[in-house]
Fold:
Amino acid sequence: MQDDTDHQSDPCAASKRKFSAAVDSINADIFAPAKKDRPPVDAKERERRQKQIDTARANVALEGYRLSGMVEEINRRYIAGEIDGDEHGAAIRAIVTGEDGL
Structure:
C-alpha cells in the first residue's frame, strides 16, 4: 500500500513517480528490437537522414544546448531505419513532454 504522506515530505512525489514511469516506458520502446517487417533503408536514405539529424543537432548547438544520450539513441535508430519518421518524432516528443510516444 502506498504511503499517503508522500506529499508532506515531497509535494512533487506523485509527479516524479509519473514522470519516472513514463521514462521507463520510453526506454523500453527505444531499446525494443526493430520491427521485422520494416524494409531496410538504402545508403542514400541513410545519408539523407544523417544530414537531417546533423542539421537538427547543429541548430540545437547554436541555441547552446546538447542532445541527450536518449535523443541520440533515437536518432541512431532513425538513421539506421529501425524506426520511421513518425516514430522518431513521437519518441522525441515523448522525451520532451515526459509521456509515452512510441
Summary: The chain has one domain: 11-97. Residues 11-97 form one domain. The chain has a mean pLDDT of 80.
